Amino acid sequence: MRIIAGKYRGHQLVAFKADHIRPTTDRVKETLFNKLQFDIGDAKVADLFCGTGNLGIEALSRDARFCTFVEKNPKSLTITRQNLEKLKVPPGSYKIVNMDVISFLKAYTGEAFDIIFADPPFTEKMAHDVMEAASTSAAFGPNTQLAIESQAKERMEDRYGSLVRFSKKDYGDKYLSMFCHESALKEEEDHE
Asked: Which stretches are annotated as coiled coil (predicted)?
């Protein structure tokens, strides 16, 4: 596992043994960051179910302003901390929250994120529940984009309240879906 682009480009993340983690592949990560390339600079990012911190660190490498890493698994939290330390990521550019993601989304009261990454554990079919929680969370604002990975066979709607899926890519056993607020989609259509 490595960082693809930006200031930490080419750096390997720490090797680990953890059956509960299946990191986002470089192929999926490349597609995702190509979509976000004009939005990532100076963005406030959340890496939900951060696992190794892979996506959040990639965002920080590409000049995201701040990343909140959210994870409840102690082993994952340790790996994320090790990766941040290994790459010497400035402590003022991130925060680690040891909390269940659904609880985090429900309790969140801060400023909305610009970009949210969500990669729920592949052993649990949680993507639908995450999207339901995100649709009513203060974490999701009018200009937020959310990228979520889900298993091909699990339930995922095209719409959750005012959140609309605007992109879906098939990777065999999983999908990468992108959601935004319906007003952002309408604004984009009006400009075309």
From this structure: none
CA distance 124 to 140: 23
Summarize the confidence of residues 65-69 as an average pLDDT.
98
8 A C-beta contact, residue 4 and residue 62: no
The full set of domain ranges for the chain reads 28-191
The whole-number average pLDDT for the span 127-141 is 95
Check whether 158 has a pLDDT greater than 70.
yes
Q: Which helix or strand (DSSP H or E) is residue 162 part of?
A: none
Residue 136 has pLDDT above 60, yes or no: yes
Where does the pLDDT of residue 19 fall: very low under 50, low under 70, confident under 90, or very high at 90 and above?
low
Long-range contacts made by residues 86-93, C-beta under 8 angstroms, separation at least 24?
86/11, 86/13, 86/14, 87/3, 87/8, 87/11, 87/57, 87/61, 89/8, 89/57, 89/60, 93/60, 93/65, 93/66, 93/67
Query: Which phi and psi (to 5°) does residue 15 adopt?
Result: -75, 145
Give the single-character DSSP code of 124: S
What is the token pair recorded at 65? 């302003």
> What CATH number belongs to 28-191?
3.40.50.150
Q: Name the maximum alpha-carbon separation found in the chain.
A: 49
Q: Is the pLDDT of residue 154 over 90?
A: no
pLDDT at 187: 59
